[in-house]
């Protein structure tokens, strides 16, 4: 099938071989390294493939608990080492010295709370604690100034997709998150109160006074928290947006127009067309609270004043071990300078001619995506789900064809974000400057300038499918992992690993467009309930019902992921087999499994996905070719009779 594609794909791979400085590796030996060959492949393949996998102490200190987090930990180590040691003065990457200056300033120099309080003073809010004058505190200006630096104040202002049209971004006003206070947690509350006291002492207050005031600050924050019902776990509830004018009438006490005037200074905007999604219950409660005459200005103003250093976690990391401090400083770079950090990362991974190598890799990924689409289209053309139902078959095909793949652009260092400040030796100043810049950029997205490439996040390795945009997005971190940046000495191994790694990831995301959620959205990402007739939905559900069987724990919760896992690997495998002259299925299955070595983080509660071992084993159990390859008997664990397959 489709010979031109496979030739082009191979060509792209060969192109990379020529360009890349990375030495090619013996991938078979690497596969063996992680394996525990004593475990029978037909009993528990995850154990067979991953029984000897482990992360080093250094990597575990940086969060490695499975293969993916190990990739991230490796990337972090590489960045940390280079930021601490490399001399970038003669680097071709002009952003690198800036990154190093910022990183080193935060790791080495002392920080001071005064930088943060001075920044807030410049808002003109007139804080009594600083100004000695209790009458004229202007909380509206203080609240806006906090947000200019990315911090939350009396509310949390976010820039999010519009609930109706995903290509428009609008403001959301939600209740604050009480990160440091916690909820009904005495220990957290105690620690938080002590933290606020330390900040007050640093501002020159006497111990007894600081203790009293800190207690009042916590009490004030708890009165804010009481406005939020206990069960508001969901952060973004889809609600109809309000106009600013409408909200001004409903909530005159909050002075929203003045707030946005202060916040959006320097940006051209029209109050008449501003749309806001708000948590109305919270804002009404807040309005009542602010109208309370017993509310003490010293308490509220000081609470707002300390939200800024608290947002930047001033002093919270002072006692931590070095690796945590390094990670924290790197985390700041990731948040505030993702573009330049991503560029540095690709330079470290790909060598000096990284731009060229990166562009080639992107082309290669695009070709792989094309191949997978072709293969999937073939399947949609033939599936029984649309038997005698040409209209729905065409709908599905149109949606597949319209699906886009968004990959990150490497930020051009000579044409970076306008007005990126020059980094100096003061960590606090650097943090504030960058935050100010970033918030402005974010606000501009509300008034035009929508995002046109995938996030440049250099430390994220999770691809995702956006239902409402019908597109797959790959973050930059993923492109720096061995999934893409690995060259095997045997060409056939490279192909098998690429197909079972990135090929599988892309296929998994593609299948999400046609899972129980996906089938309600059309080619342009509009919600289109009922676009499929009952007949097709019934046929789909009958087949998908297999994924709700006994083999799956928490099946109803994880069903869409289980569909994407199995159907995705099926698609990746078929694409690989039709594109490769001599496919090596053993390598393909091992490589797939090994990308899921280790266990999910215990606390992370990723309840939408089953545990790695269960995922891998259930997926492979659905693929007859797996049983054939490893000669599993009809009664073995890994070869269940009830094999699930929709497409
Ligand atoms: C790199 O440049 C900076 C500023 O120009 C200078 O302070 C630093 O000493 C230089 N580093 C080396 C190793 O030359
Ligand atoms: C605050 O007021 C007190 C008494 O009114 C005065 O002694 C003190 O100097 C003032 N402090 C500042 C910073 O203005
Ligand atoms: C699927 O069917 C359509 C319509 O018959 C055809 O144009 C298209 O080429 C087919 N796709 C593949 C990959 O065979
Ligand atoms: C099922 O989900 C619950 C919560 O969503 C989780 O605590 C539990 O560990 C899950 N069980 C398995 C076997 O994954």
UniProtKB/TrEMBL annotation:
Q: Member of which family?
A: Belongs to the peptidase M13 family.
Question: Where would you find this protein in the cell?
Answer: Cell membrane
InterPro entries, per the entry? MetalloPept_cat_dom_sf, Peptidase_M13, Peptidase_M13_C, Peptidase_M13_dom_2, Peptidase_M13_N
Q: Which Pfam family, any one of them, does this sequence belong to?
A: Peptidase_M13_N
Signal peptide span: 1-24
Which GO molecular-function terms appear in the entry? metal ion binding; metalloendopeptidase activity
Q: Which GO terms describe its cellular component?
A: plasma membrane
Per UniProt, residues of the Peptidase M13 C-terminal domain are 462-646
Keywords recorded for this protein, A-Z: Hydrolase, Metal-binding, Metalloprotease, Protease, Signal, Zinc
Coiled-coil region(s) at which residues? none
The biological process GO terms on file are: protein processing
Give the organism, scientific name.
Drosophila erecta
| Cofactors demanded by this protein | Zn(2+)
The protein here is known as: Uncharacterized protein
Please report the stretch or stretches of sequence annotated as the Peptidase M13 N-terminal domain: 41-404
Please give, as recorded in its UniProt entry, the membrane topology of this protein. Answer: Single-pass type II membrane protein
